[in-house]
Design goal:
Length: about 150
């Protein structure tokens, strides 16, 4: 951070000097010259390690902001399932559907026959009053956006 503050201070002092001492006939070249000086200083002052440190700080802040912004996706999935009166097993199937998993994958993960998995999916569709996976996901997304809007 000390280098960043130094770069900002040097930039301000350099700008003042250019503005004060530059003859008026060269003022057209000031933006190009300024850009060149900024790029040169940035490459000399900041290493790849500095840039990766700033990126890590920004990523950490984004994660913190996302977690404090309201309802998480997992809790929204659970609340949507509860609102649709899904059973415990149907809720498990719904979570896999929301992740984009196939019926055969869901059946293997839940140790049930594929026909049983399809039956759960059909039951979920009926309770959610949809006729396809995309409609189900769209209904969930609308629900989640309403919940996020209500929590703000």
């Amino acid at each position: 951070m000390a280098r960043a503050r130094l770069a900002i201070s040097l930039g301000m002092v350099g700008g003042w000097c250019v503005g004060f001492f530059m003859p008026t006939e060269f003022m057209g070249a000031v933006p190009i010259l300024s850009l060149l000086v900024v790029l040169l200083c940035a490459t000399q002052l900041f290493s790849d390690h500095d840039v990766s440190t700033v990126n890590a700080l920004a990523d950490d802040r984004a994660v913190a902001e996302a977690s404090s912004s309201g309802l998480s996706r997992a809790s929204a999935l659970a609340e949507f399932a509860k609102a649709q009166n899904l059973s415990q097993r149907e809720t498990e199937v719904f979570v896999y559907l929301a992740e984009g998993r196939t019926t055969s994958y869901i059946a293997s993960k839940l140790f049930v026959a594929e026909s049983t998995g399809r039956a759960h999916v059909h039951s979920i569709y009926q309770k959610a009053q949809v006729s396809s996976r995309m409609e189900l996901l769209d209904a969930f997304e609308e629900y989640w956006e309403r919940q996020l809007g209500a929590s703000r």
